[in-house]
Design a protein that fits this description.
221 residues, mainly alpha, DNA-binding, homodimer, Arc Repressor Mutant, subunit A
DNA sequence: TCGTAGAACGTACAGTGTACGTACCGCCCA
DNA sequence: TGGGCGGTACGTACACTGTACGTTCTACGA
């Protein structure tokens, strides 16, 4: 029996590999949102069938873990010549930037098990904290405070759904359904956002925390 | 034609209503996790069929919004006789407690649209901030900082999967797969957690933020 | 007694993750 | 020059999800 092969798709497809799948997953999530990241969609975007992905990736959870770790790998390594707390600040800013580039990553940051890149990042942050001259206990708390601040702010920013769309439109729409008599302070607060004469909370509060830590340490001695 | 009715289930079931559905959803999510909260499971737990729920609730997203708002309603109202920032602190602690009681709520806190209870809570928090004597701008940032701190800490705590299970076991398991040479500071940090001679970061950092705000305000004048 | 509104129900559909069995292709060893 | 043999791709199938739609039942007011 003769089997005739028909070239149904002339587009040459890149060979499958964990790295290729993770990369495709990241771009798909970046462009269409994490909800569009189904194994079927991902396979289609790569030009393969669904189950072929499972030859390179254990399951979807594994894929998500790898994707999150790839984002973590984008975080700048600390400058070894900088004073520890300055380096901490830089890491926080860089982490915030990486999470802003990949909005889907922040909610997964906590759920997924930390991969090597995130381990590296956490270990570096801890090392800097412990080397900063703060007391052991304050360094411990400072680690959590900084981590929490960075992740919290990105989540807050994204949770509002302020990624792609115009922030102003969103805010105006929200405020339209708001009774200024029952929620006067919310209305006022949103106005402050719209008028834009309040800078970013992110760096201000970050410095608040870091400065507060050293002050607390000084007072304790 | 005669139709014989058979009492297949003698258990009398409570009449369906939005409140009853929300309450059942909350207990189901509390006990079995939010992943177990499917419309089918929820209907079964109430003794009804799936589609009957849709007579009282628009869709699952609507249900989740109502559930989150029910948790928000558990937050203590601010004591009107307390100084503003003391009341802010109390609200933060109470919010943290409510979120700890319902671990599933924290991730939904941001995704779901705010209902009346959360609106009330946000407006109260803003009112206290603006009444605290801080500059308008610092009050604005302080609102975000406190909100962020509370939510971030609960998410951090839950993300680790430290709800139901024993924290120590989890930590020891995690550390077992950790190379002390490549991640020395992580190992040390987890040890500090296990030894337990570091208090809760939550209130310490909360005070750090609140004290930092008033100090910043004093310096600016 | 009848009409009607609202609640409950059953079926059906598209979409999800993935277990399982099969087919193919290239490489190493006889 | 075979001949397996391991890895990759594929197709089918299953259980489960949210929910649209049409039908049945039940209670109450006229």
């Amino acid at each position: 029996m003769y089997v005739v092969k028909v070239a149904t798709d002339t587009a040459p497809r890149a060979p499958l590999s964990p790295a290729a799948i993770v990369a495709a997953g990241i771009t798909l999530a970046d462009e269409q949102g994490v909800d569009a990241l189904s194994m079927r969609n991902l396979a289609r975007s790569l030009g393969y069938e669904v189950m072929s992905l499972y030859n390179h990736v254990r399951n979807k959870d594994d894929l998500l873990t790898l994707m999150v770790d790839a984002v973590a790998a984008e975080i700048d390594l600390p400058d070894p010549s900088a004073p520890p707390l300055v380096a901490v600040r830089a890491m926080a800013v860089s982490t915030n930037a990486a999470l802003a580039r990949h909005p889907w990553a922040a909610p997964l940051w906590l759920r997924q098990a930390p991969g090597p890149a995130r381990m590296r990042q956490m270990d570096d942050l801890l090392r800097l904290m412990y080397a900063s001259g703060l007391s052991r206990e304050l360094a411990h708390h400072g680690f959590h405070a900084v981590n929490n601040h960075v992740l919290g702010y990105t989540l807050q920013r994204l949770g509002m759904g302020l990624e792609g769309t115009d922030l102003e439109d969103k805010a105006r729409d929200f405020m339209a359904g708001l009774d200024a008599d029952t929620y006067p302070f919310m209305v006022a607060h949103i106005h402050e956002h719209l008028d834009g004469h309040t800078g970013s909370s992110f760096e201000l509060v970050l410095d608040l925390i870091l400065d507060g830590l050293v002050r607390l340490d000084r007072e304790a001695r």
